[in-house]
Amino acid sequence: MNPSPIAAMLLAAGRGERMRPLTDTTPKPLLTVQGKPLMQWPLEALAQGGFQDVVVNTAWLGAQISTQFGNVFATERPSNLRKQLSNQEQSTASLRLHYSHEGRDFGGALETAGGIARALPLLCPPHATGAAADVFWVLAGDVFAPDFSFRQDAVARFVASDKLAHLWLVPNPEHNPRGDFGLGPLDADGTGLALSQPADDPRPRYTYSTIGLYRKALFAPPWCDIPTGNPQGTSAALAPLLRAAMAQARISAEIYTGRWTDVGTPQRLAQLNA
Fold first, then answer.
1. Residue 93: phi, psi to the nearest 5?
2. 250 alpha-carbon distance from chain centroid
3. Structure letter (DSSP) for residue 18
4. Contacts of 219 (CB under 8 A, 6+ apart)
5. 164 by DSSP, 3-state: which?
6. Cα gap 221→240, rounded to integer Å
7. Tens of pLDDT along 91-150?
8. Quick one: which of 183, 195, 198, 192 has its CA closest to 245?
């Protein structure tokens, strides 16, 4: 398995208001789910998928995150990916962790699009070539999706497309019964166009899992007017950019049916740990 040069952004800057009082002293991505900090689950999956660089944005109690995880995260490779079990370098997978400290630099979180714009120089550094100069993963540090695989073939398929983002959608949970986006007819790979449907549209909609592949072009005009690096610390949501690009048939999506929980309340956290 050849490591992919593309980076991933793990969103970890939110305040976690609905998780209070648990998040009064602990950032939500560090809350324990089945024995591990919540954000450790996707870090392990990224490392096991062969990805090597992750940018973590922080705000609320962000120093706790960088202190706990440091600059390198290592995990054991699945046995089917080890060439020689006696070789420590091959039996473990590691990630280089980079931090975008929004709270330290701007006094608070910049929302998703603002945070991604801020982190773009780390996600697609000027010296990068090929896919690493243009494409990156985005995922949330407060979502539990232990069955999701960050696949090299998914990256290759996205790179070969003309889309600005590819989203993984999930069946609607109880707390989001109408979902977020629609999905057009599927091709042989199970992929279709993501659709921005009005609230009164009777066609099925699905919930955005918060996992996706993105091109940096989505965070530039005409879709986004925040300069690369977001030097002014502009806060901006992601959904308006996605909906504008969906209107031009530039966003694809597929359905993910594995375990998935938006760990948004103490009750959902307790259920996962029960």
1. -120, 140
2. 19
3. G
4. 113, 116, 117, 120, 226, 228, 241
5. coil
6. 13
7. 678 899 999 999 999 999 999 999 999 999 999 998 888 888 899 999 999 999 999 999
8. 195
Q: Which CATH class is domain 4-273?
A: alpha beta
DSSP-derived 3-state class of residue 72: strand
For residue 94, report the phi and psi dihedrals to the nearest 5 degrees. Answer: -135, 155
Please give the structure tokens belonging to residue 73.
């995260």
pTM of the model: 0.90
Measured CA to CA in angstroms, residue 142 lies from 3, 49, 74, 156, 163 at distances of 25, 20, 20, 27, 26
Instruction: Assign 3-state DSSP to the chain and report helix, strand, coil percentages, each to 5.
Output: 30, 25, 40
Place of tokens 């959902």: 268
Q: Which residue has the tokens 């090299």?
A: 152
The rounded distance, in Å, linking the Cα atoms of 64 and 92 is 25
Sequence-distant (6+) residues with CB within 8 A of 245 are 164, 165, 218, 223, 251
Model confidence pLDDT, tens digit, residues 241-250: 999 999 999 9
Of 19, 54, 36, 38, the C-alpha closest to 137 is: 54
Q: For residues 233 and 114, what is the distance between their CA atoms, to the nearest angstrom?
A: 7
pLDDT tier, 65 (very low <50, low <70, confident <90, very high otherwise)? very high
